[in-house]
Amino acid sequence: MKTKILFALDIGTRSVVGLVGEQTGGAMRLLATERREHHTRAMLDGQIHDVPEVANVIAAIKSSLEKTCGPLTKVAVAAAGRALCTIKTAAEIEVCGLLTADDERSLELAAIQAAQHKLATSKAVADPTQYYCVGYSIVSFSLDRTYLKTLVGQKGKTACIEVIATFLPRQVIDSMQSALHDAGLEMAALTLEPIAAINVLIPPTMRHLNLVLVDVGAGTSDVAITRGGAVIGYGMVPCAGDEITEAISQKYLLDFNVAEKIKRLLSSKQKKLSFADVLGMEHKVATNEIIKAVSPNVAELAQAIAGQIMQLNQTTPQAVLLVGGGSLTPLLPEALAQALDIPSARVAIRKPDSAEGLENIPACLQTPDAVTPLGILKLAGSRTLNFVNVTLNGQPLHLFNLGNLTVADALLAGGIDIRNLHGKPGLGMTLKINGKTKFIAGTMGNPGRLELNGAAAAFDLPLAEGDTLVAQRGEDGTNPAVTVKDVLDLPPELQLTINGSNHVIAPVVTINDQPATASSPLADRDQLNWHFPSCLAELLAALGFVAAPQKYIYHINGTDRNYKVSPPITINGLPAAADAPIAANDQIIIHDCPDPTLAELLGLAEQAGDHISLLFNNSACTVPVRRYSLTVNGQPATPGDTAPNHADITFSCIEQPAPMISDVLLAAEFNPRTVPAASKVEILLNGRPAEYTAIVKNGDSLEVLITKYNDCHSK
């Protein structure tokens, strides 16, 4: 029967354990083991902080084991659940014929890929590309909705699998890979520490029980829970044995390594422990006293672990199995039982006295902290996650071989966003032009370069060991850069003169209500408005001409009064109002303001009630019925006279009585002296004789007939 030599490493916060086993069929026989502790605190909370220091310890273990087992180049490892993210997902396939072991394996990998997709599309982590899948557990198999232990040899229509996949940050895995590489080793397989431990202590035949396995290490306490025949969840508490060591160190002022030795001796039978603090003072303290001093810290650790258990399990478990070096912390089982409110007998420290599939376990490995390394070795010979090594843009890339790896998988693992390989199109621009929306598109992006082993590649091409990938980002398109003249077809300019000066009139353009020119740049969501000056007022405003009115101050009837006179404007010599139209070659003159007349100042425009109209000797004649009295600076004036600035004006209005014929004669400037001597004067009002004092009214007809006496006698 073919045998296989397997190498496993448990890289812990406090120590590193190396195991070499020989696999024959389904059995694993232990050949050699080596344990070494870190010389410094090179790891904290399961994370490598000093890669060279950890690499030296790994290299020393490798060198020691090679003396017994020969060259070792590949190794299986496990990661602590620091920043652990778990995804529960399922996958199914249509069944054609009998299901084989390959079909079952394909279904498992499909579920893992579904978990990766779920992680990438969810918001469980900030950047899904920075997470590795480090292990998974099968929750259940089903065939046509019937639950089975395995699908192999079964026949039906639809096969389904449900798994729990675990993901860790790439930083955790990358630092581990760097340490292995520096020690001359290649990571052949990776799993999660609680997955490894549970495969040793809780076989499938025990998983119908609601059991909790807690691997209490130095930096982390990893949790795995079984129920209903499957593993239902994994979790991690970022505190473990080092918290107790820190408490001892703080209490007695000890070097961390000295405090670690004291902690390990607490579970011994020694009644008193001797040690020297950092000041060089010797102490001899009762063991019970030290245990009592750290009991609050132990209780805090137990509470943290219990909180994680209840979060994952949602109820009190049936029993708790403690493994790992930190499980030997005095009072921890009792404190955890109290925190979970279960009998203390239901919390036990377990040792790998015997394990299914493992043979020849030496006495040095029959300790609680040997459970995880034995589990790693056991899983190294099973169908766990291994790697495909490729090169991406000149950098080595280790891909978890989930089966049917493609170029897209490599880009995702390398942190390259597939969407960015093709340059993004430039951002478009939306404008509003005189209230109407206009969209201007950016230029399209240019495609990037994607090659596999020197040839153009597609995302779905399969990958093999040693492949070389080149992925270069495409060029983004450009955003539109436009000016006013690029989006407006403006009318031609007008040439005209104002006060003898030539002017060129362009359309009035504004961007967001601010003045603009044809060359002004535009930005997204700008509001562009334009119009051509269509009348005199708009033209003068566009050119900045201000036809300011002249201000006057008068003293009228004892009261000061202000008055304004706008300058008259002519177009081509004709008076023009503000709304007068303009045209090319117009000659516009803004005249100086003339002094106002008294009539304009006092509002004495002639009105119908100021006079009556009648006919005098068949000619139109008006007779005033209201008379005005005006003086300017003490001198008599008429309404038509100008009113100089600051003038002292008096003004009164006299209402006339009903006009008589004598008033008509006065208004008509009839001079009686012009009547020849020896003449007869006859006055006819509306054809009837009348006296000088007869009242006249509007529309009357008045005639004055003059006849010489000799003419009268001749008749």
TrEMBL record:
GO terms for biological process: cell division. Gene3D superfamilies: 3.30.1490.300, 3.30.420.40. The keyword Transcription does not apply. Pfam families: FtsA (PF14450). The keyword Ligase does not apply. Residues 6-201 form the SHS2 domain. Keywords: Cell cycle, Cell division. This is Cell division protein FtsA.
